[in-house]
Amino acid sequence: MNLWLVYSIAALGFYWIFALGGRFAFSQTFMMALGGYTTASFDRNGVGFLGCVLGAMVVTAVAAFAVGAVLWRAEHFYFALGTLAVTEIGVVLFGKTSTFTGTNGNITGIGYPVVFGQELRTDGQVFWLLAAVLTLLLLLAVWLKRSPLTRDLTAVREMPTVSKTLGVPVDALRMTTFVAGSAVGGLAGALITHWQGFIGVDSFGLNLGIGLFLMVILGGLASHWGVLIGAAFYVAVPELLAGLQQYMSILYGALLLVVILVFPSGLIGIVDSLKSHRVRSTSRSVES
Q1: Contact at 8 Å (CB) between 159 and 4?
Q2: Residue 223: is it exposed, middle or buried by C-beta count within 10 angstroms (0-12/13-18/19+)?
Q3: What is the pLDDT of residues 168-183, one digit of tens each?
Q4: How confident is the prediction for the chain on average, in pLDDT?
Q5: Given this model, what pLDDT does residue 271 score?
Q6: Predicted pLDDT at 156
Q7: Helical packing angle, 170-196 and 28-44, nearest 10°
Q8: In the prediction, which pLDDT does 72 show?
Q9: What is the DSSP track for 201-248?
Q10: Which of 105, 153, 208, 212 gives the lowest tally of CB atoms within 10 Å of its CB?
Q11: Helix H or strand E segment including 272
């Protein structure tokens, strides 16, 4: 359950970048790793849990702004390639032995999360912390969905050239969603680091980046609630099909193809369709 919550947080950040900002960024796993190593570094220097997490988000946001500035003019495919390059370079650097990344990118003995002076040592205790963080982020997403800003973001995603002509600050909105979504990725990396008590560079490779993309696509681009379903599916399937680990990539690829062709709105679209069907059935029953 805790892994599902962490992945939901990271996927929600990627949702803001991809579904709202209209930019495909492979850098979300790099931001998670940066958040994790930053919080580990702060923790080793005696900074409290809250300071570690907030510091990780700030460092990640600054890094995202720098990446966004370098790739300012890159569009679509080239932006994706640029962020992929950043991630691959980052993973290599994180894997080196240094005071920041530990021995070969592995750091152990990281402190437990602390809330109101209480150490959260068990998975059950950490669950409520992660659930609270995810709830706050979802409330923010709901507010954003209902705000006028969503209209501008939709225009930026669908018609960037026309939006610029109409005076919509396309570049500023793209940068904002990229920085905000990346900071949430850094938050997820910090939280999973404190929960597990260690961090290793192998946990933040390209596979996780593709996994976050799958979570958002499988869940559905039409709603931020879809990331919960996508993350749950991504976490649950390997456990349910433990004997078929070598076929996971094929399974995910086939499932992604089915979702794109048959359910373009994602798994959340299936839920919405069932709700609509139930409402129509109820209405017919009442009319009869």
Answers
A1: no
A2: buried
A3: 888 899 999 999 999 9
A4: 87
A5: 64
A6: 82
A7: 50
A8: 85
A9: GGGGSHHHHHHHHHHHHHH-TT-TTHHHHHHHHHHHHHHHTGGGGGGH
A10: 208
A11: helix 266-287
